[in-house]
DNA sequence: TTTCTTTCTTGTCTTTTGTAAACGTTTTTA
DNA sequence: TAAAAACGTTTACAAAAGACAAGAAAGAAA
């Protein structure tokens, strides 16, 4: 269950066997079907998720429409960080797009782990550093690149995403409408 | 010199006197004029900056044009995180927009501080958590909001920024051209 | 399979933005 | 102070995107 997770942590810090046992006992495994809401609108969340298998998205509702702002697949953390860290209610919804397998970590357990495992702060710090770089690149892409460039970049970084996520969700994730993405795709085909 | 900085850290963790002395000795003060480049294109950077006074921007060059992707004022960290953390050359340039006062921290000193100050990892971890939330909100705003909404949000969050930063830099920061921002401003005036 | 729902594409029209250039104003700086 | 550079706005035109609706295609469920 947790081997995949520790393959991930091993790339970041060297947890001892004892560390890993403490960590493993704090993590609970959860298997869910498609369309399961892991975090719901206007609810507080005290959980972080590590996605072992499957696919998730995070979305906002604006003018009655679901706008996808984040999509992720295997081997990454996800959570409504704002709500998790500040304790406010979440304006984001997180739901599965496929049957998925997750590890779940509660805030209380995490706070305990910070005290019990000296390396824990360093692990999270380094994970956040990498996450921050990713977010910064995504943000920069919105400023620097056209929607068409963002789409082709997304495809080259993650070719299988088109098979796993409906296009209209990818569209809002790219900051455009489904109609517009369809036209962009047509334009690309016509070019080649 | 470092009082302002420790006012900032005090909100995050309780460094001891000894911690603060170690930290203070690792920080060097730097006073610079407008248009000073703190990080340059295609150079490696091993420095983080804490802005005590003044105003900075981070920009990319695309098609010969400078595109501002980040602007910040007093009491915040800035750096080319990608280059700083991964050791690659920076594609970003960071420059001052006003005469500014900074604290400078070298990567080597930071790595030493992680060993000497037990709270250091926690401090950076919590700082990164807050930074991540900010980046996530900025990214979400690009997906959810129109340029006009982003502009009015920016003004309400940071009303003095219009006096401190040229409009054409704000424009690219909002993901649009200077021409477009000028039109948006006109539209807003006409509405009221 | 057949039905129902979701997804994707297309067309028309409107709005917004980008590009490029011109022009007056303000700010730098030599 | 005078010249040069930077800045903000405007215009005309082109390209792209949004809104809305219709219909085709694909997928899921009965």
TrEMBL record, chains A, B:
Domain (Cyclic nucleotide-binding): give its ranges: 31-115
Which SUPFAM superfamilies has this protein been placed in?
cAMP-binding domain-like
Q: Which domain of life is it from?
A: Bacteria
InterPro entries (UniProt xref): cNMP-bd_dom, cNMP-bd_dom_sf, RmlC-like_jellyroll
> Can you name this protein?
CRP-like cAMP-binding protein
């Amino acid at each position: 269950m947790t081997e995949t997770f520790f393959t991930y942590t091993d790339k970041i810090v060297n947890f001892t066997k004892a560390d890993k046992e403490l960590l493993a006992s704090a993590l609970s495994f959860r298997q869910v079907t498609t369309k399961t809401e892991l975090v719901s609108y206007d609810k507080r969340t005290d959980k972080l998720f590590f996605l072992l298998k499957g696919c998730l998205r995070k979305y906002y509702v604006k003018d009655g429409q679901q706008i996808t702002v984040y999509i992720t697949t295997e081997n990454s953390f996800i959570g409504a960080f704002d709500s998790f860290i500040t304790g406010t209610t979440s304006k984001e919804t997180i739901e599965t797009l496929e049957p998925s397998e997750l590890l779940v970590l509660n805030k209380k357990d995490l706070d305990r782990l910070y005290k019990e495992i000296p390396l824990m702060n360093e692990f999270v710090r380094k994970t956040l550093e990498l996450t921050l770089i990713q977010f910064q690149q995504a943000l920069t892409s919105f400023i620097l690149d056209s929607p068409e460039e963002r789409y082709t970049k997304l495809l080259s970084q993650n070719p299988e995403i088109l098979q796993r996520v409906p296009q209209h969700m990818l569209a809002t994730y790219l900051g455009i409408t489904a109609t517009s993405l369809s036209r962009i795709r047509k334009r690309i085909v016509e070019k080649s």
